[in-house]
Amino acid sequence: MLSQRTVAFLETFAQASNLVYPEGGFLFRYEFAYSQAHNQLSGDLLSALQHDEVTEYAEVSVGELNDMARFFQGALGNYTKDAPSGNAVRTARTLIDYLKEDLQNDLVGLVVEDGSGDMTVSLEMANKATNNYSWLELFWSVD
User: What is the DSSP string of 72-139?
Assistant: First the structure.
């Protein structure tokens, strides 16, 4: 489950984003499935869950981290398709670290969708030992 620290981090970010986009802004949604990762995951993430070797899903890649940072930067009114600012990268890294600490996940899949006037980040996370599954969706829009 998400800690109060992580929820407060997301809520504080939402308040800042909503000042920039009063008709839109930042939203988030979290789901937890006890001992159900094997039912919730699919494709390469499911395969990684079922095998002991370390995979590319053990950590968020640099490219994924930068995409997530672009999401945070855009949510505060500074959208870019180029490299994100250092502050945006620190924000993304902080959330990833909080999630890792809260959920003890050893598998993570991250997808960023860059729309026209909005962005979505979806994170699927699992713990191999407990088979617990978590999903976090982050979304912002201008309206």
Answer: HHHHTT---SSPPPHHHHHHHHHHHHHHHHHH--SEEEEEEEE-SSEEEEEEEEEETTTTEEEEEEEE
Gyration radius from the chain CA atoms: 15
- Return the ∠ at Cα 23 (arms to 18 and 24), rounded to 5°: 60
Query: pTM higher than 0.90 for the full model?
Result: yes
Q: What angle do CA 7, 64, 59 make, to 5 degrees?
A: 75
Q: In the beta sheet, which residues pair with residue 139? A: 27, 120
pLDDT at 107: 96
Residue 52: its pLDDT value, please? 82
Of 81 and 53, the structure prediction assigns the larger pLDDT to: 81
List all residues 6 or more positions away from 72 whose beta carbon is below 8 Å from its beta carbon.
13, 84, 88, 91, 92
Sign (positive or negative) of CA dihedral 92, 112, 1, 58: negative
